[in-house]
Automatic annotation (TrEMBL):
<dbReference type="InterPro" id="IPR011050">
    <property type="entry name" value="Pectin_lyase_fold/virulence"/>
</dbReference>
<comment type="similarity">
    <text>Belongs to the polysaccharide lyase 9 family.</text>
</comment>
<dbReference type="InterPro" id="IPR006626">
    <property type="entry name" value="PbH1"/>
</dbReference>
<keyword id="KW-0964">Secreted</keyword>
<dbReference type="Pfam" id="PF00544">
    <property type="entry name" value="Pectate_lyase_4"/>
</dbReference>
<feature type="region of interest" description="Disordered">
    <location>
        <begin position="581"/>
        <end position="636"/>
    </location>
</feature>
<keyword id="KW-0106">Calcium</keyword>
<dbReference type="GO" id="GO:0000272">
    <property type="term" value="P:polysaccharide catabolic process"/>
</dbReference>
<protein>
    <submittedName>
        <fullName>Pectate lyase</fullName>
    </submittedName>
</protein>
<dbReference type="InterPro" id="IPR012334">
    <property type="entry name" value="Pectin_lyas_fold"/>
</dbReference>
<feature type="region of interest" description="Disordered">
    <location>
        <begin position="776"/>
        <end position="828"/>
    </location>
</feature>
<feature type="domain" description="Pectate lyase">
    <location>
        <begin position="227"/>
        <end position="427"/>
    </location>
</feature>
<dbReference type="GO" id="GO:0005576">
    <property type="term" value="C:extracellular region"/>
</dbReference>
<dbReference type="Pfam" id="PF13229">
    <property type="entry name" value="Beta_helix"/>
</dbReference>
<dbReference type="GO" id="GO:0016837">
    <property type="term" value="F:carbon-oxygen lyase activity, acting on polysaccharides"/>
</dbReference>
<dbReference type="InterPro" id="IPR039448">
    <property type="entry name" value="Beta_helix"/>
</dbReference>
<dbReference type="InterPro" id="IPR052052">
    <property type="entry name" value="Polysaccharide_Lyase_9"/>
</dbReference>
């Protein structure tokens, strides 16, 4: 429908031109031309159409929740989850507090006082639930909140590396260094930066000097700069800004750099950030106020940048510039000569010039940027003003813009999608045509041109909403005095996938739209509706919860581009919200904290606890510690600082050198060398060491010593050795507090600080080598003797994550055995021997969903969450993050209360909607043991396992809307099999009635697409699922999966639910062992398994093509083929029994034989007995000796109902089938199930 656009015409809630929604009215108003800017001829470019990948995720993932902290001695005000962060607010009389998140120590710099309340913000959190605790003396508080994930969408995420110092899940990248910058530390913050190709380091003080050192390009550690409170100009700056730069365009800074604000009040006051020659940069959560630098922009991408993400910032006025249009400062967020950029969720407060995009690039090739979910709050112009670029501009809120929205010049291509324009005078303009020249009148005049009469670009528009007062001329519409096929503002489409014809060109320059948005360069995303975009922008744009600055614009601001004097006065008088800092920070260095994958983003390295007994296995990080310690508590610890000589090049240190929390004391005459020296401690090998080269000068040494500040309860550890027997000493500056003998083998020195203070670690007389030194802080209180030990320990444990051996001491484990202890079939663990919760030392009892979610972050290694009988209802996914792990010597347990069964403990996710990723439980962590649970009704998989060395035992998966249990990688960026889930044991579990919408995906058990080696299914039953009982499918795009072992398992009735419902799209096999027609083979192993009454094949290679191995299996009365292996190369089949076949069994391909022995084979409507090993190819007949059809002791098959888990299992959980389908003729083997487990799996649960 077309309508004439004339002054005074009312358009109310009218859909006008496909893809745009209009309401309000039109009015005549003159527009002043903006300043002239540099123009350039366009060098024609083309879209890069090669296959691309993106590291980000679409949309804000997860949910955020708040809670009121509870405890004793402190008053909880609020705890709040946010985007990859959370905070807690409380009141108390102390000036020093300790905060932990999920048991991990949080830097004291993150705690400060705002008004009369204390607040701690915790960045670097993955999506999911997190428990925050505050302590001061005997007073404490805690709360659990849910955290969502940032919307990592757009061109900045082009490639496989996420911009900044954070991973795609929101936790810090490995080996990241964290700097804390507040008004008092800004010129003191220091860091040792690698500044030469030989590994020499320079101690740099001040943020800009540190960044200048990184510019050299020798230090590749990710760097995270955390800005706290209001920070004014630094002593050292670059023309009044902080400059992020590499040495040149060919040698960009690419270590991964984030500068982020902490909390809602982080403010860069008076200075901006400039970026050039840099890649993988993130700027976030900062308020930029009153910038007065020489350049004048809040944030500016100047040249030769890639993969830059600027998000969730508040852009305020700068100081006035010299030009007439700089009364509100210069650019807010400009981008020139840079590509693969995303600007998202930023809030522009009455900015004069928001986003200049492009300047003198001279080409339209390989320039990509995304603007989404930005709030242009009464800002005047440039949203953006675009030259040359391909720009995706979606879900932005244009809120009262007095000049114009987006402008296209010089061959640029803009895709304007699902934006909301409220009183935006000219929503979209193309230079030198349409509204740019008509300016709301009926006559065309080049004097009206806003864009310095540059040649035009092109705009594609889809699903935008416009309300209030505005002018807009769509292509092909009707406008008085205009031919709207040449004088138009945008080409409006009714489908986002529609392309703009090449015949549509700009009036000036004849530039075409390049249709980048429908090419292979485009990323995956889901746009909100314009109305929902407004809601999300108002909720999330700018700093956390909108920041600490509030202001309401008057209605008159919609049409005025004058400076708002009231707003400016508030900005000029802004003092900041923080009034005091946590006193604990006085003992903590603001520079160089190393970090890893902990939930709080603060810590690095292995996690270790105070274990008693004489031996310990390796921790989840690969480093192991043991020794004698005493104390009544079972205290888990978290590494707050870790230093390894392998991270540094060999050389001589001749002056005091700061390594984060540690200072190495040295002089020119009493120097310390980093030397090449190999050693192995536990499972960790070292190549370099600090050689102390001799004794220090007393108990308060000035050379050849490590100096470190310890709090009470902190644990100091060092891996050391020497050429001969030496004495290592630790002093507190007044006396020696611990010493130990060091020999030629690497050993561990450990000390638990009994009081806070400064400590010195040094050799008493001769050379000692230090390979690694760590400082850890206790996450729970308890007495400790402060003893040290020099013993070492190795690693042990089976592929399932359980250790073998025995333990002793005050905190004992159930005795461990992995050997065969009795006759029978299958395996069970010793968990079913627990008769009382009082037997468990570190038990957390839960009886509702809220308690369970909180307990996931509180349970310690070797401890258990014990679930009372009942139904636990959830509407969202439970995530156990990859940083939440047990260890090989102390797993984490989630178990049914003693005396209950799996049918009694129901985790019910039925209220979830049917959707991909709406899984019941994401198990991304490692070394967890689930026992005796039912997982029901999830919107996708019931349990999705992506971690390693987990055990899932005696669990039921029912009525989930994809596979009951699936093993696959956590995220698509993990492309190496070594990073995929491995060594998981699924033991004595049952899965049934799992069905997806089409019926072609929901298996009972799936270990497919991206699973690593060593995954095992033992004693499991899968029946009445819409697709397959087991699915080991692999596809060419991701390659072969690891070898899966399936043993002692049963599959029946798949393809038809217990209700009788069936799905025509389901594959309906019992055991489906691969896929992709031989292109991704894997030699899976199947033994002692049985398949019957499935809707298609009993056992099938499904095109695996690998050397499959089947031993002692029975397949009976399946609808198609009992054993279907006609695409198997060099398979090995022995002891197989086929019964009541409907079609011929098939072994080997038509050209490559498989070996078959001791097998009853059906082909050509006859049975054959193949006694000795025989090569068989597909279609081969009359192999072996013809025999009669077999008879069985029992052909009474079980009914597919909800009682299978109870009726078909022994008391120990193993499968119980009795004589069912057992051949009468003992010559034939097949599957056999006895009355008890043949082996018992030990556990590492700590018991009283």
């Amino acid at each position: 429908m077309k309508k004439s656009l004339r002054a005074g015409m009312a358009l109310t809630s009218l859909v006008f031109a496909a893809g745009l929604i209009f309401s309000g009215c039109l009015a005549i108003s003159d527009e002043e031309s903006e300043e002239a800017e540099t123009t350039s001829e366009i060098s024609a470019g083309s879209i890069n159409r090669a296959a691309v990948s993106y590291s980000g995720t679409s949309g804000i993932l997860g949910s955020i929740t708040s809670a009121t902290p509870t405890g004793s001695g402190l008053t909880g005000v609020k705890a709040q989850g946010w985007l990859n962060s959370a905070y807690i607010v409380w009141t108390g009389s102390s000036s020093s507090y300790t905060v932990t998140c999920d048991g991990q120590a949080v830097s004291s710099y993150l705690t400060r006082k705002i008004g009369g309340q204390w607040r701690c913000d915790i960045p670097g959190l993955a999506k999911g639930n997190h428990t925050i605790k505050v302590t001061s003396g005997s007073s404490y508080l805690s709360a659990t909140v849910s955290v969502a994930s940032h919307d990592r969408t757009g061109f900045a995420f082009y490639g496989t590396i996420t911009p900044g110092a954070y991973k795609a899940d929101g936790t810090l990248k490995d080996n990241a260094v964290v700097l804390y910058v507040n008004e008092s530390t800004k010129d003191k913050v220091s860091l040792d930066v690698v500044t030469s190709s030989k590994g020499a380091t320079t101690t740099c003080t001040g943020l800009q000097n540190i960044l200048y050192a990184f510019k050299k390009g020798y230090d590749n550690r990710p760097l995270c700069v955390r800005l706290i409170g209001k920070v004014t100009d630094f002593a050292t700056m670059d023309n009044g800004d902080i400059m992020i730069s590499g040495s040149s365009a060919s040698k960009p800074l690419s270590n991964g750099l984030t500068i982020e604000g902490i909390g809602s009040d982080a403010t860069a006051y008076g200075w901006g950030i400039r970026i050039k020659n840099a890649q993988y940069v993130e700027i976030s959560n900062i308020g930029f106020m009153m910038i007065d630098s020489a350049e004048g922009d809040n944030v500016s991408l100047q040249q030769s940048n890639k993969n830059v993400w600027v998000h969730n910032c508040d852009m305020f006025y700068g100081t006035p510039g010299g030009d007439a249009d700089q009364k509100k400062g210069d650019g807010s967020l400009d981008c020139k000569k840079s590509t693969y950029v995303t600007f998202s969720y930023n809030h522009f407060w009455d900015s004069g010039k928001c986003n200049l995009l492009g300047l003198s690039e001279g080409t339209t090739s390989d320039l990509y940027i995304t603007y989404h979910h930005n709030w242009y709050d009464h800002s005047d112009s440039r949203h953006p003003r675009c030259r040359y670029y391909s720009a995706h501009i979606y879900n932005n809120y244009y809120d009262g813009n007095s000049k114009y929205g987006a402008g296209a010049c010089l061959g640029s291509s803009l895709f304007m999608e699902s934006n909301y324009f409220r009183n935006c005078k000219y929503p979209m303009m193309i230079s030198m045509q349409g509204t740019d020249l008509f300016a709301g009148t009926s006559s065309k005049n080049s004097a009206n041109s806003t864009f310095s009469k540059e040649a035009g670009g092109m705009i594609k528009a889809y699903n935008n909403t416009m309300t209030g007062t505005y002018y807009f001329i769509p292509y092909g519409g009707t406008y008085s005095g205009a031919d709207t096929t040449s004088d138009f503002d945008a080409y409006v489409v009714s489908s986002k996938s529609a392309t703009v014809p090449s015949s549509v060109v700009s009036l000036s320059g004849s530039n075409k739209y390049n249709n980048f948005d429908t090419s292979s360069i485009m990323y995956s995303y889901t746009a909100d509706s314009p109305e929902d975009a407004v809601k999300n922008v108002k909720k999330y744009a700018g700093r956390i919860e909108g920041g600490d600055f509030t202001y309401t614009f008057p209605d008159s601001a919609d049409k005025s581009y004058d400076v708002d004097t009231t707003l400016k006065s508030k900005l000029e008088n802004y003092t900041g919200a923080t009034t005091a800092y946590n006193e604990a920070s006085s003992s903590e260095s603001s520079g160089g904290s190393s970090s890893g994958s902990s939930s709080s983003g603060e810590s690095s390295g292995s996690s270790s606890g105070s274990s008693s007994g004489s031996s310990s296995g390796s921790t989840s990080s690969g480093s192991s510690s043991s020794g004698s310690s005493s104390g009544s508590s079972s205290t888990s610890t978290v590494t707050s600082a870790k230093l390894t000589a392998d991270s540094y090049s060999t050389g001589t240190i001749s002056s005091d050198t700061v390594y984060g929390d540690f200072t190495l004391l040295a002089t020119s005459k009493k120097n310390v060398k980093i030397s090449s020296s190999s050693a192995t401690y536990g499972s960790t090998s070292y190549k370099n060491a600090w050689d102390l080269q001799g004794g220090a000068d007393g108990v308060k040494p000035s050379y050849r010593a490590f100096k470190v500040t310890l709090a009470k309860g902190d644990i100091l550890k060092a891996v050391v050795n020497a050429n001969a027997s030496r004495t290592l000493q630790l002093s507190n500056g007044s006396k020696v507090v611990s010493s130990t003998s060091v020999g030629t083998s690497a050993s561990l020195f450990s000390y638990n600080a009994t009081s806070a203070g400064t400590y010195y670690l040094y050799s008493k007389s001769s050379s000692i080598r230090v390979f690694e030194i760590t400082k850890t802080g206790s996450s729970s209180s308890g007495s400790s003797s402060g003893s040290s030990s020099g013993s070492s320990s190795g690693s042990s444990g089976s592929s399932s994550g359980e250790s073998s051996g025995s333990s002793s001491g005050s905190s004992s484990s159930l005795s461990i055995s992995a050997s065969k202890t009795q006759t029978g079939v299958g395996t069970r663990s010793r968990l079913n021997e627990i008769s009382s919760i009082n037997q468990i030392k570190n038990a957390i009892s839960v009886s509702n969903a809220t308690q369970l979610k909180a307990a996931l972050n509180e349970v310690v290694s070797g401890g258990a969450i014990v679930l009372a009988k009942g139904t636990y209802s959830f509407s969202e996914t439970i995530t156990i993050s990859s940083s939440n792990n047990g260890s090989s010597s102390a797993m984490k347990y989630i178990i049914a209360a003693p005396g209950t069964s799996a049918e009694d403990i129901i985790l019910d996710f039925s209220s979830q909607s049917l959707a991909d990723f709406n899984r019941g439980i994401h198990l991304f962590g490692s070394y967890w043991h689930f026992y005796g649970l039912t997982i029901k009704g999830a919107g996708d998989n019931g349990l999705y396992v992506s971690g390693k060395n987990n055990i899932i035992e005696n669990c039921i998966f029912v009525e989930n809307r994809d596979s009951g249990l699936q093993i696959a990688r956590e995220k698509s960026s993990l492309s190496n099999m070594s990073d995929w889930p491995s060594n998981n044991l699924i033991l004595n579990c049952t899965s049934y009635n799992n069905a997806d919408k089409t019926g072609e995906n929901a298996d009972g058990f799936a270990c497919k697409l991206t699973a690593g080696n060593g995954n095992v299914f033992d004693g499991c039953i899968s029946y009445s699922n819409s697709d397959d009982g087991w699915d080991l499918y692999a596809k060419e795009a991701t390659g072969s999966i690891g070898v899966v072992t399936i043993k002692n398992c049963v599959a029946f009735n798949n393809g038809k639910l217990t209700t009788g419902s069936s799905y025509g799209n389901g594959d309906m096999n019992g055991f489906k062992l691969g896929g992709s027609n031989g292109k991704v083979p894997t030699a899976h192993i199947v033994s002692n398994c049985i398949a019957f009454a499935n809707g298609h094949d009993g056992f099938t290679d499904n095109g695996n093509g690998g050397s499959l191995s089947l031993t002692n299996c029975t397949s009976y009365n399946n609808a198609k083929v009992n054993f279907n292996f006609y695409r198997t190369n060099k398979g090995n089949f022995t002891g197989l029994v086929t019964g009541s076949p409907n079609n011929s069994d098939k072994y080997g391909t038509s050209s490559v034989a498989s070996t078959v022995s001791k097998t009853l084979y059906y082909t050509n409507s006859k049975y054959y007995w193949i006694s000795s090993a025989t090569s068989v190819t597909n279609g081969q007949k009359n192999v072996g000796t013809q025999v009669n059809a077999p008879s069985f002791k029992s052909t009474s098959l079980p009914t597919a109902n909800s009682s299978v888990h109870k009726n078909l299992r022994n008391a120990d959980g193993t499968v119980k089938l009795g004589d069912m389908l057992k051949p009468n003729d003992s010559t034939y083997s097949g599957a056999s199930f006895s009355t008890q487990a043949a082996s018992i799996l030990g556990v590492s649960l700590k018991t009283n």
